[in-house]
Amino acid sequence: MDAKVGDWVVTPRIGKPVEIQALWLNALWIGNQMSPEWKELFTRGRASFRSRFWNENAQCLFDVVDVDFRAGTTDATFRPNQIFAVGGLPLCLLDDNQARRVVQAVEERLLTPLGLRSLAANERDYKSRYEGGVWERDGSYHQGTVWPWLIGGFVEAWVRVRGGTAEAKEEARRRFVEPLMEHLNRAGIGHLPEIADAEAPHTPRGCPWQAWSVGEVLRLSQDVLA
User: Fold this and answer.
1) What is the pLDDT of residues 56-88, one digit of tens each?
2) Left if phi > 0, otherwise alpha if psi is -120 to 50, otherwise beta: which for 187?
3) Cis geometry, peptide bond prior to residue 201 (ω within 30 degrees of 0)
4) Cα 62 from chain centroid?
5) DSSP secondary-structure letter at 102?
6) From the CB of residue 118, how many other CB atoms can be counted at a distance below 10 Å?
7) In this structure, how many other beta carbons lie within 10 angstroms of the beta carbon of residue 96?
8) 168 with 159: CB under 8 angstroms?
9) What is the pLDDT of residues 155-182, one digit of tens each?
10) Structure pTM?
11) Smallest Cα–Cα separation from 116: which of 72, 157, 151?
């Protein structure tokens, strides 16, 4: 989340962001498949992740811990980044109950027909439209604006917490992928947009032909849901 206008960093998220920890722990797990020297570090890291990032009150994950490098502080802002602890990467880092809770919360608060919002609608800095000048657009880029490519990690997580059954895959295809496929005949014909407005009618914005948006739908269709 790198939007910046002049000296204004819109979403700094300084500390330990949840998705960076998910990437690092998945890298340790992959390394452990090739060399046992990474096993202890991965085991310790995953246990620490589950303990430090779990937000018991909200039944989801904190967005950042050790905020601004202050030990023990947490940021409970509700963003889609937490989904990568469950889907979108090779390994789910949470126990079954935690994983189900995260997926449920993300579905309830961030899911739209065009992907996931970058910020929940009840958060203070939420922006419902991506429009206006540079300050307004960059100020909303990661503050509610929908990102279609995030549907990949979400759908993979949604299927995982349901056991990866054929029934779960079929339901996921019908509920989440087919609505996106309908947009291939709108806006940038044959493609999906970079972003969209957070609120209906979820007007496509940004680049009309975004490779990572199309790429995640292809990954879902040909791999995750195959």
Assistant:
1) 999 999 999 999 999 999 999 999 999 999 999
2) left
3) yes
4) 13
5) H
6) 24
7) 11
8) yes
9) 999 999 999 999 999 999 999 999 899 8
10) 0.95
11) 151
